[in-house]
């Protein structure tokens, strides 16, 4: 059978079912569970596997249900087969099937028994909410909330019950979510309300997973943040309200995970949430959960129809070291696209996203000498802030912090605290 390489998908099941080339990152689930904090923020550059890991996490925890919200019998659950292996029917019309192999997480039987398919999951991403005004961003997020509630349409019955667990005001609010008639207070409490409903339905607290939280914020700053700071503050206030309601004092929350590229300082997005712990690429946890190790790359090349030489792959795509870990990491987007294009080398990662913030900061006079050193294959030592404010981007420290967390530079080693 010819190798099938799937790129550009954030759907974990699609990756396993449609592709024959796959890197098993399922031990990310164990590392996530081993961290005791209630809410985590993990930041990584774009195209490093944040979204696919998030969907993997959602698939692992989620209770699979039918259209009425009744949990499926074990033999009908797809998600369990994704992790523990088994035969899956890909097409009922043709009878095409695929035998899935068990993933690494299945070796931890106690984790599978306690967590796989046992919890409601709320999973939402904001990468599409890249709009040019506060009102447009708000409308885009409302659209995402409507889609989210539609995924849980079986909960609508609680709004229609004459005798049930909801008061009249709660029933009216729930119907507004399904009708799309969402006011300011509804939007603020949208994730909180959904987790409360899921708790009523399943008797279990929910995992709340938020992907690419900072995409609309970064885009808003680029488009109108400096020209209209009041409007930009409204964007920040909107996210601050949603996150605060979902994660602060929510008794129906099991755990929360937020991902993005940057921890935005001075935005105070998590100021009301005292239990958020952040892991950046400068921290040791999760260092090999995002991206490919050289062992991963070698195995991928063995599966590819036409593979380049490892030495050439190293020269183009190797060199990242995260969290002081000496394991050299490869950018997954570059590797998969290179293999899909029969070993053709080009700037896949560079061409996959915008660079507006970086372009502007690179023009600053005070960093030209450092840039020249890097361009001539030299090295520099610089202080790095784990939180970056937009106002600091044009400073030397702010720029190099941005370049590092956005994936353009690599931290070779920490010389003294916060100096790399």
Please name the defining characteristics of this protein.
10% strand; 41% helix; globular; 420 residues; alpha/beta
Describe what this molecule looks like in 3D.
The protein is of the alpha/beta class. It is 41% helix and 10% strand. The strands form 3 sheets. The chain has a 5-stranded parallel sheet with strand order 4-5-6-1-7, sandwiched between helices.
Give a quick precis of the structure:
The protein is of the alpha/beta class and 420 residues long. It is built from 18 helices and 9 strands. The strands form 3 sheets. The protein has a 5-stranded parallel β-sheet, sandwiched between helices. The chain has a two-stranded antiparallel ribbon with strand order 2-3.
Strand content: 5-15%
Low-confidence stretches: none
With strands numbered from the N-terminus, the spatial order across the biggest sheet is: 4-5-6-1-7
Using only C-alpha atoms, the radius of gyration works out to 23 Å
Major sheet details: 5 strands, parallel
Q: Topology as H/E string?
A: HHEHHEEHEHHHHHEHHEEEHHEHHHH
Secondary-structure topology with pairs:
Blueprint: H1 12-18, H2 27-34, E1 39-43, H3 50-61, H4 78-84, E2 86-91, E3 96-100, H5 109-115, E4 121-125, H6 134-151, H7 157-160, H8 168-179, H9 184-188, H10 190-202, E5 206-211, H11 215-225, H12 229-247, E6 253-260, E7 276-279, E8 292-293, H13 294-303, H14 310-317, E9 329-330, H15 332-340, H16 356-361, H17 368-375, H18 396-405
Parallel strand pairs: 1-6, 1-7, 4-5, 5-6
Antiparallel strand pairs: 2-3, 8-9
């Amino acid at each position: 059978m010819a190798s099938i390489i799937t790129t550009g998908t954030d759907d974990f099941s699609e990756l396993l079912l449609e592709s024959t080339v796959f890197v098993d990152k399922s031990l990310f689930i164990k590392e996530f569970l081993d961290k005791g904090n209630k809410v985590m923020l993990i930041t990584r550059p774009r195209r490093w596997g944040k979204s696919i890991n998030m969907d993997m996490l959602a698939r692992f925890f989620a209770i699979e249900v039918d259209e009425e919200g009744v949990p499926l019998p074990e033999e009908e659950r797809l998600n369990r087969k994704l992790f523990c292996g088994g035969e899956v029917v890909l097409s009922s019309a043709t009878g095409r099937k695929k035998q899935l192999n068990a993933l690494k997480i299945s070796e931890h039987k106690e984790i599978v028994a306690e967590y796989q398919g046992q919890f409601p999951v709320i999973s939402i991403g904001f990468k599409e909410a890249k709009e040019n005004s506060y009102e447009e961003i708000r409308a885009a997020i409302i659209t995402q909330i409507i889609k989210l509630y539609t995924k849980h349409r079986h909960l609508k019955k609680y709004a229609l019950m004459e005798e049930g667990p909801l008061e009249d005001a709660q029933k009216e609010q729930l119907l507004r979510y399904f009708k799309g008639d969402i006011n300011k207070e509804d939007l603020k409490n949208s994730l909180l309300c959904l987790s409360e409903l899921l708790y009523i339905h399943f008797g279990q607290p929910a995992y709340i997973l938020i992907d690419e939280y900072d995409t609309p914020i970064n885009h808003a700053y680029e488009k109108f943040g400096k020209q209209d700071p009041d409007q930009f503050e409204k964007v920040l206030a909107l996210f601050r309200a949603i996150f605060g309601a979902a994660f602060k004092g929510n008794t129906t929350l099991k755990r929360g995970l937020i991902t993005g590229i940057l921890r935005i300082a001075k935005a105070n997005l998590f100021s009301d949430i005292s239990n958020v712990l952040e892991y950046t690429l400068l921290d040791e946890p999760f260092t090999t959960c995002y991206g490919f190790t050289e062992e991963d790359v070698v195995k991928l090349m063995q599966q590819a129809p036409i593979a380049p030489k490892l030495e050439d792959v190293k020269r183009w795509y190797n060199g990242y070291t995260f969290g002081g870990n000496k394991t050299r990491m490869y950018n997954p987007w570059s590797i998969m696209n290179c293999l899909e294009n029969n070993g053709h080398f080009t700037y896949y990662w560079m061409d996959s996203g915008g660079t507006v913030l970086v372009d502007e900061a690179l023009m600053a006079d005070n960093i030209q000498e450092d840039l020249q050193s890097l361009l001539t294959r030299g090295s520099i030592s610089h202080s790095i802030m784990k939180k970056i404010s937009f106002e600091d981007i044009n400073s030397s420290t702010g720029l190099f912090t941005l370049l590092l967390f956005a994936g353009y530079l690599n931290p070779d080693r920490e010389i003294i605290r916060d100096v790399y």
